[in-house]
């Protein structure tokens, strides 16, 4: 299932760590997380405050290909709001349309 993906660069417990982001996941407002590296395998489970979420998709995406739907899945209303949030967390980080990130999509575990 994961043979086409490169090795993980971090662990799933580091995927969603900021309190505001955890709250969005728990409220069902955030169903995806973009990172510079790969933090999870498909089928892996993330635990947040006693709730389990299963990773359903892992793939790469260029920042320039981000859609409004992607921003909403990240818990933001617009692409600009998502970009501003990311840049506030990573001061000095360039927002380059060609820059690739890893998308981790997840859902509440059954």
Descriptive overview:
The chain has a four-stranded antiparallel beta sheet with strand order 1-4-3-2. A hairpin with a 2-residue loop joins strand 2 and strand 3 (51-62). It has helices at residues 19-26, 68-73, 79-89, and strands spanning 32-35, 45-48, 51-62, 100-108. It contains three helices and four strands. 16% of the residues are buried. It is globular, with a radius of gyration of 13 Å. The longest helix is centred in the last third of the chain and has 11 residues, at 79-89. The chain is of the alpha+beta class. The mean pLDDT is 94. InterPro entries: PUA-like_sf. This is ASCH domain-containing protein.
List keywords for this structure.
110 residues; alpha+beta; four-stranded antiparallel β-sheet; 4 strands
SSE layout:
Layout: H1 19-26, E1 32-35, E2 45-48, E3 51-62, H2 68-73, H3 79-89, E4 100-108
Antiparallel strand pairs: 1-4, 2-3, 3-4
Radius of gyration: 13 Å
- Classify the beta-strand content into a percent band: 25-35%
The major sheet is characterized as:
4 strands, antiparallel
Note the total helix count.
Answer: 3
Mean pLDDT: 94
**Unreliable sequence segments:** none
Element-level helix/strand string? HEEEHHE
Across the major sheet, the strand order is 1-4-3-2
Report the count of strand segments. 4
Query: Could you say which overall geometry the principal axes of the C-alpha atoms support?
Result: globular
Structural class: alpha+beta
């Amino acid at each position: 299932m994961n043979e086409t993906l490169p090795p993980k660069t971090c662990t799933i417990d580091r995927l969603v760590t900021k309190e505001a982001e955890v709250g969005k996941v728990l409220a069902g407002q955030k169903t995806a997380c973009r990172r510079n590296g790969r933090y999870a395998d498909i089928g892996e489970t993330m635990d947040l405050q006693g709730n389990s979420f299963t990773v359903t998709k892992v793939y790469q995406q260029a920042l320039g290909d981000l859609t409004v739907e992607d921003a909403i899945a990240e818990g933001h209303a617009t692409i600009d709001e998502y970009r501003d949030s990311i840049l506030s967390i990573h001061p000095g980080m360039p927002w380059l349309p060609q820059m690739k990130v890893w998308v981790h999509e997840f859902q509440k575990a059954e």
